[in-house]
From TrEMBL:
Cofactor requirements of the protein: a divalent metal cation
GO molecular function, a single term: metal ion binding
Family to which this protein belongs: Belongs to the HARBI1 family.
Name of the protein in question: DDE Tnp4 domain-containing protein
UniProt organism field: Platanthera zijinensis
Biological classification of the source: Eukaryota, Viridiplantae, Streptophyta, Embryophyta, Tracheophyta
Subcellular location: Nucleus
Sorted UniProt keywords: Hydrolase, Metal-binding, Nuclease, Nucleus
Length: 222
């Protein structure tokens, strides 16, 4: 890698440049980038190395995720070897996953009362007084090695992951289950998520009478 514009120099140019250029590269503003960087450094283990700053590690990760780029193109853009770019991408992904474990959860006290979106709308109250959010599945394109592709081929003939997500009435995600093959049925993913405590599906807390027996009525499938 012999370019004079190293990855950190390119990143610095974007940070000092027009906001649209930065947003086009990383799908967020400079302010959000610095907020995210600080949070990941302080609380979720994001670190650089002697030669590479943590901001460049985050930039590599966001560049790959934002554009669905391969590591080879990211290594050219940031002027690192493919091994180094892959290692930094893994560091960034692990930090983001740890952040997701804190952020993608129900708000404190969310199960204590009927959401105002239900309680204050006569179309839904009292029929949906026990509804706590919405849950649905979506298919996201996946790059899968040829020998492993068959289970990931969905009804449209392409390789996908079947992702299940739940959100509250503020449109904030409260749960996500990723990685399932595109051919997997939604109900199979749902039953798997609620049956294993390690995935921390947002069950209502014990002691709330309305939720003594968990069933699909707690969610509106959209």
């Amino acid at each position: 890698m012999t370019s004079k514009q190293t990855g950190d120099k390119w990143l610095g140019e974007l940070l000092r440049g027009h906001p649209v250029r930065f947003h086009n590269a990383f799908r967020m503003t400079q302010e959000i980038f610095f907020d995210l960087l600080g949070t990941l450094e302080q609380n979720h283990g994001l670190q650089g190395s002697r030669r590479t700053a943590s901001r460049e590690v985050l930039a590599i990760t966001l560049y790959v995720l934002s554009h669905n780029e391969c590591i080879r193109k990211a290594s050219e853009r940031f002027q690192h070897s493919t091994e180094t770019a892959s290692r930094y991408f893994s560091v960034g992904i692990r930090a983001l996953v740890r952040l997701a474990e804190v952020v993608v959860v129900p708000e404190e006290g969310y199960f204590d009362s009927t959401p105002p979106e239900i309680a204050e709308d006569t179309r839904y109250m009292p029929f949906f007084k026990d509804c706590i959010g919405a849950i649905d599945g979506t298919h996201v394109h996946a790059n899968v090695p040829v020998k492993n592709q068959v289970p990931y081929i969905g009804r449209h003939g392409t390789t996908t992951q079947n992702i299940m997500a739940a959100c509250d009435f503020n449109m904030c995600f409260t749960f996500a289950m990723t990685g399932w093959e595109g051919s997997a049925h939604d109900s199979r993913i749902f039953n798997f998520a609620i049956s294993d405590p390690k995935y921390r599906f947002p069950h209502p807390p014990r002691g709330i009478e309305a939720y003594n027996s968990f069933n699909l009525l707690f969610y509106v499938f959209v």
